[in-house]
Design brief:
single chain, Alpha-Beta Plaits, 2 domains, four-stranded antiparallel sheet
């Protein structure tokens, strides 16, 4: 099915660890929903040789054909889709119940603009210029007048921005609070 994948692991322990680490991770702005498969995959059956693989495959295909139109979940989904189409024809726009989840800042792709958070309220543009100019190719520092605890620092290229980000992330500008530095969203 579209939007679905199966992943096999060497052991149940590795699968459990992967499930804990990746469950809910946003992929294309949607949190991944992860669970264990209800039955063993074909590749696992092939490797363990627990059953005759061809007989297993034939049985699965027969089951698929038999339940294609009688599956209650598919029937429910089809009914919802038809109701939404009827509402759409009546002028009401269909709404999604899925929350819009953004990718965590730590996983954003490299960018020449850095996003600074958790800055002291009294930080000045000159202080940030002095701090970030020790790394080459600094282009600009922008403070946000309405939000004193964030700023943007722009470099000429991604490589320079990455070096500065890695060096100054969690730096204590006022001796107390660590500044959080991530790549800005494009």
């Amino acid at each position: 099915m579209r939007g679905q994948a199966f992943v096999s692991f060497e052991s149940p322990e590795i699968a459990q660890k992967a499930l804990k680490e990746v469950k809910g991770f946003p992929l294309y702005s949607k949190p991944m929903q992860i669970s264990y498969a209800r039955t063993r995959s074909g590749c696992c059956r092939k490797e363990t040789r627990s059953l005759d693989f061809e007989a297993h495959k034939a049985k699965r295909l027969e089951h698929k054909k038999a339940t294609r139109y009688t599956n209650p979940l598919k029937s429910k989904f089809r009914a919802k889709r038809q109701a939404a189409a009827m509402d759409g024809a009546a002028g009401a726009a269909p709404t999604s119940k899925r929350p819009n989840v953004q990718m965590p800042d730590e996983y954003l792709p490299p960018n020449k603009i850095l996003f600074l958070q958790n800055l002291p309220e009294n930080v000045s543009k000159d202080q940030l210029m002095a701090l970030f100019s020790q790394y080459p190719n600094l282009y600009e520092v922008r403070l946000i007048p309405t939000k004193k605890d964030i700023a943007f620092v722009e470099y000429m290229d991604e490589g320079s921005a990455t070096v500065a980000k890695d060096a100054l992330h969690n730096y204590k500008l006022d001796g107390e609070n660590k500044i959080k530095i991530t790549f800005a969203r494009k």
